[in-house]
């Protein structure tokens, strides 16, 4: 469960906490990242003077494409965050609350439900590697024939050229031709 009704916690004294286990199938972080495991872990909800502080220690796994060999592999993603959720409706009076200058804050909706999915998606995106690698020793693809060098060795000879000397190389080849 990643949606919690926090009406009773909002009525409790500041500092009151509740702990929950999370085991929720969330199929995707976004349109391109598919999760292979349910989101699991623990969540602690603490009453603050303005709302509810969420301390989440979660994990899941995602299918990613290696940036070197282009194979699909599974990456374990730790999702940890601490965010304060602010109610949009006062639980005692039923009147809208005024939250100036904090439009970026996560909200507790008018039914006093706190939904962790937006935070899980945001922090899950942050947990993704910038350059996904199936392993640190991934050899990648051959620049000549495109063979996956982790699977087989190719017989291509790749000559490394330094582009800084291209002008000098062209000058020398023109001199030989004359």
Write the layout of secondary structure elements.
Blueprint: E1 3-5, H1 7-11, E2 17-24, E3 34-35, E4 39-47, E5 52-65, E6 72-87, E7 106-108, E8 113-115, H2 117-127, H3 166-177
Parallel strand pairs: 6-7
Antiparallel strand pairs: 1-8, 2-4, 3-5, 4-5, 5-6
In short:
With 178 residues, the chain is α+β, with helices and mostly antiparallel strands. It has helices at 7-11, 117-127, 166-177, and strands at 3-5, 17-24, 34-35, 39-47, 52-65, 72-87, 106-108, 113-115.
Question: Could you please describe the fold and organization of this structure?
Answer:
The protein has two domains: 3-127, no CATH class; 139-178, no CATH class. The longest helix has 12 residues, at 166-177. It is built from three helices and eight strands. The strands form two sheets. Strands 2, 3, 4, 5, 6 and 7 form a six-stranded mixed sheet that branches. 16% of the residues lie in helices and 33% in strands.
Overall 3D form: elongated
Whole-number tally of structural domains:
2
State the order of secondary-structure elements, H for helix, E for strand.
EHEEEEEEEHH
Radius of gyration: 26 Å
Total beta-strand segments: 8
Strand fraction equals: 25-35%
What's the average pLDDT?
86
Q: Ranges with pLDDT <50 over ≥5 residues? A: none
- The chain-level structural class is alpha+beta
**Count of discrete alpha- or pi-helical segments spanning 4 or more residues:** 3
- How widely separated are the two ends? 79 Å
Largest sheet entry: 6 strands, mixed
Helix content: 10-25%
């Amino acid at each position: 469960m990643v949606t919690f009704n926090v009406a009773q916690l909002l009525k409790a004294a500041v500092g009151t906490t509740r702990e929950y286990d999370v085991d929720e199938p969330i199929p995707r972080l976004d349109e391109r990242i598919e999760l292979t495991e349910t989101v699991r872990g623990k969540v602690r909800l603490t009453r603050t003077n303005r709302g509810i502080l969420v301390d989440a220690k979660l994990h899941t796994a995602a299918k990613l494409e290696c940036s070197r060999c282009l194979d699909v592999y599974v990456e374990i993603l730790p999702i940890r965050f601490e965010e304060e959720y602010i109610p949009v409706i006062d639980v005692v009076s039923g009147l809208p609350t005024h939250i100036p200058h904090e439009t970026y804050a996560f909200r507790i909706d008018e039914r006093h439900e706190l939904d962790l999915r937006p935070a899980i998606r945001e922090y899950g995106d942050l947990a993704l590697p910038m350059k996904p690698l199936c392993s640190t020793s991934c050899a990648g693809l051959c620049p000549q024939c495109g063979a996956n060098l982790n699977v087989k060795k190719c017989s291509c000879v790749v000559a490394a050229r330094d582009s800084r000397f291209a002008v000098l190389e062209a000058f020398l080849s023109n001199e030989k031709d004359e």
